[in-house]
Amino acid sequence: MRAQMTDIERLRHSTAHVLATAILKIWPEAQFAAGPPVDNGFYYDVDLPHRISPEDFEKIEAEMKKEIKENHPFERMEVSRDEALDLGKKGRL
Q1: What number of CA atoms fall less than 13 Å from residue 81's CA on the CB side?
Q2: For the whole model, what pTM was predicted?
Q3: Is residue 23 within 8 Å of residue 44, measured between CB atoms?
Q4: What are phi and psi of 30, to 5 degrees?
Q5: Structural domains present in the chain
Q6: pLDDT (tens digit, 0 to 9) for every residue of the chain, 93 residues total?
């Protein structure tokens, strides 16, 4: 694995986090599986009680725009597995 992401990979990775945050604000019960950046964008596999449909896209996009406008900082951290599990329990990941 490469040590550094390219700028476009970093953008896709960060945007995937914005997408996940937006989905959780709309549907707090959402559960996420895979969601890596890929060659032409990014995606997330999301488990919800309903299927996300094209009618939901506008709502998701609006929530993503709100998140971006709030200008939350992104922090890159290198932690051990145990530290990551602890941060996850605290809602920091």
Answers
A1: 0
A2: 0.77
A3: yes
A4: -60, 140
A5: 7-89 (3.30.980.10)
A6: 456 878 888 888 889 889 999 999 999 999 988 777 788 888 888 999 999 999 999 999 999 999 999 998 877 778 899 998 888 777 665
